[in-house]
């Protein structure tokens, strides 16, 4: 590791100068005196790697600092700290690995890279004794990873339930409050800049799944990758699902769920109904929140802006103060510990409850036939509601917790029943007290 | 500072073995394997200082570790880490100072000491190069101080609004949901163990004021003591105040408010009405939550259990993992920075809004007379509601923000008006978006 630098200015280079990067540069300039006081030495930006020099830049970006040669920047002898805000797998991975090998401290907001190849990135940090901080990678400005990694280091986390994607929360919130359909709510989110032109990463749950992998790894001290995460998006959520949730006293959220069970860990992202009294139910618009259940600490929640240039830059600067202090002290922060090395369980093993909405024929014996299918897979029924719907009837069944495989098999058999005209909707129910 | 200890077990001594101390001992025993893996060395309890050896102890407390000689424990050559859970000023202060002087790392849950004499405690940590951690001192298990001190170190905090006393939140929540009076709600809280036999420290706001001082110091990088905090408790909150709040779409909470203004910082604890849509309004029962507004991060909230043996012990153990890792690495955590050294403004300078409930004579000209008093002190009226009450009328006025001194002078003049029979209630309104 590079030695302490006295009060020599610390030299920071940025990889990427988009929405987050330009906010980082602005804050470094505007708060330079405060930052110097908190760190114990001034910090200066000595280079910014971009793809195209000619692109228009935010005001205040010194064009003399721009370069397309990121490899040179991260290996410059006088570079102390590398901030990576490019995103994506390559060239971010190669640049971060090169930076750590060259003795630099690194800060990244790259959830995709950490979720896909966290083991290699963490391994390099250990091997080269480099600082690796990434608070901005999950839930933007919300201080979440440091609390999980450090404040709760003396506790046993049982479960993490998170709303970690602001785009989908905005869409589901609009569907709940205005009755809009998915397509209209998505269009509105796009108009407000909450959703991208190609919304796939958000609405199909890829973004949330990457964050779930990072959260599960930190919470349970075990390696988890994005590929381990069961993922379902919100494109199939319809106004009738929202309405059914309301009848049940619930609201629909896209949840990242990380659970520690006897056999290992379960990590999944899917829409779910949660009771309106649950602290996560009140998280509106594009806000994020993460609910943590720990053995001793009990129930905790962290709430705030999950995205945006300035909030994400705030998280990057918090990391910057930490790594800068570490560098001056000639030390480094704690490694992410993965000593537990727990198996990641398949989705079928997850314990959850289902809300099943069936269109059934309105004739004697239907309820008995349907109930028999649930019993076949040992799924216990918690509540039933039946009422007329057109020529047939609507039969809504809410189950107690059971293995997801048993619930899925139940639904599959229900679909094959002649008395069941269609399975109108199936949604998991989470966050109930008896879970 | 003591040098790195290789994989030699780290020796921990406890000062105090009450509700929190006995939970710390239990967790250290039950989670010893996990803690050793996360720290990199085993941790063993080598002594527990108590006042009386003969007192009954929780199961699992090894009586051979008990001693009444705390001074000997903290200066033992092989002691690495001192955990102080005695509370109060002395002997806690002398013991912590002696421990730091002897090169020990210290962890304390002592909000009263840090709020009264934080400068001396922090000064000793700096002078002797000792680690000083105290996450458990504010809001129990909620990871809050580390995020403020570290994650937000690159941001500018404008305001902290906290529900930091579970006892008073329970009482106010009961008054809101059941219509109970203060005395009945207090009795219920005492029956459930949420309030002590002598509830003064909680209901008069002393506990919240100590926490407010610690929060303000960390948030604004400036020294603040409990004596700097304007403090009003909840003993004067009546069911009619709760009812008035409801009419206004608000709920009454005891808030710790820390604000950075142009002239300095303002730190105060008092009951206030906050809008039911505010994230703090949904904090029920004995839960705590702290809402932070920062320049870049925006609005954040931290929520969880604010007290109790196990939650507080979880915070102590999180600190233990950090100081143990630091000790093994031969380094120490960041000092609390107080470089800003801002003036603490008197309460009269605080900007707030008032809800004023007046019993007035029901005759022409009363409203004009009352309105003139507000105008006299340049207090802008936001809303007025008047309706018959007995022989007179009830006149409720909600103001826009103004200096507290102007609002107090207004109320004082109103009391002297012949047309005003009585000022039925005055309560501040906080947490509105236009603030």
How would you characterize the overall build of this protein?
The structure is a homodimer of 435-residue chains. Chain A is of the alpha/beta class. In chain A, 54% of the residues are buried. In chain A, strands 7, 8, 9, 10, 11, 12, 13, 14, 15, 16 and 17 form an eleven-stranded mixed sheet that branches. Chain A has a six-stranded parallel sheet with strand order 3-2-1-4-5-6, sandwiched between helices. Chain A folds into three domains: 10-140 and 309-329, NAD(P)-binding Rossmann-like Domain (Rossmann fold, 3-Layer(aba) Sandwich), CATH 3.40.50; 154-304, Dihydrodipicolinate Reductase, domain 2 (2-Layer Sandwich), CATH 3.30.360.10; 347-429, 2-Layer Sandwich (Alpha-Beta Plaits). The radius of gyration of chain A is 24 Å and the shape is elongated. In chain A, 36% of the residues lie in helices and 26% in strands. In chain A, α1 (19-30) crosses α12, α7 (166-178) packs across α8 and α13 runs antiparallel to α14. Chains A and B meet through α2, α6, β12 and α12 of A and α2, α6, β12 and α12 of B.
């Amino acid at each position: 590791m590079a030695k302490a630098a006295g009060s020599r200015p610390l030299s920071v280079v940025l990889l990427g100068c988009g929405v987050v990067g330009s906010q980082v540069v602005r804050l470094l300039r505007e708060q330079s005196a405060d930052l110097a006081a908190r760190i114990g030495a001034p910090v200066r930006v000595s280079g910014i790697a971009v793809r195209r020099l000619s692109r228009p830049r935010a005001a205040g970006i010194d064009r003399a600092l721009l370069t397309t040669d990121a490899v040179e920047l991260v290996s410059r002898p006088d570079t102390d700290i590398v901030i990576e805000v490019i995103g994506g797998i390559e060239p971010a991975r190669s640049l971060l690995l090169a930076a750590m090998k060259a003795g630099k401290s690194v800060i990244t907001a790259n959830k995709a890279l950490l979720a896909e190849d966290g083991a290699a990135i963490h391994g390099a940090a250990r091997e080269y004794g480099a600082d690796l901080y990434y608070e901005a990678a999950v839930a933007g400005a919300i201080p979440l990873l440091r609390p999980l990694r450090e404040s709760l280091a003396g506790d046993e986390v049982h479960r993490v339930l998170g709303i970690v994607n602001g785009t989908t929360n905005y869409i589901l919130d609009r569907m709940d409050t205005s009755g809009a359909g998915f397509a209209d709510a998505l269009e509105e989110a796009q108009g407000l800049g909450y959703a991208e032109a190609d919304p796939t990463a958000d609405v199909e749950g890829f973004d949330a799944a990457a964050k779930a992998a990072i959260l599960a790894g930190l919470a349970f001290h075990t390696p988890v990758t994005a590929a381990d995460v069961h993922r379902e998006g919100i494109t199939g959520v319809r106004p009738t699902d929202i309405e059914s949730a309301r009848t049940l006293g619930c609201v629909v959220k896209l949840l990242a769920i990380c659970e520690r069970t006897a056999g290992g860990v379960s990590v999944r992202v899917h829409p779910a109904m949660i009771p309106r009294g649950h602290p996560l139910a009140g998280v509106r618009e594009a806000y994020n929140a993460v609910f943590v259940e720990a053995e001793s600490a009990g129930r905790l929640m962290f709430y705030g802006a999950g995205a945006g240039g300035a909030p994400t830059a705030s998280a990057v600067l918090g990391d910057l103060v930490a790594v800068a202090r570490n560098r001056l002290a000639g030390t480094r922060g704690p490694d992410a510990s993965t000593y537990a090395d727990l198996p990641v369980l398949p989705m079928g093993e997850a314990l959850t409850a289902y809300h099943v909405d069936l269109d059934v024929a309105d004739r004697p014996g239907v309820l008995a036939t349907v109930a028999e299918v649930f019993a076949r897979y040992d799924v216990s029924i918690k509540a039933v509601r039946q009422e007329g719907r057109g020529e047939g009837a609507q039969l809504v069944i809410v189950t107690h917790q059971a293995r997801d495989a048993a619930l899925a098999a139940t639904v599959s058999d229900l679909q094959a029943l002649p008395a069941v005209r269609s399975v109108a909707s199936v949604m998991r129910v989470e966050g109930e007290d008896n879970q």
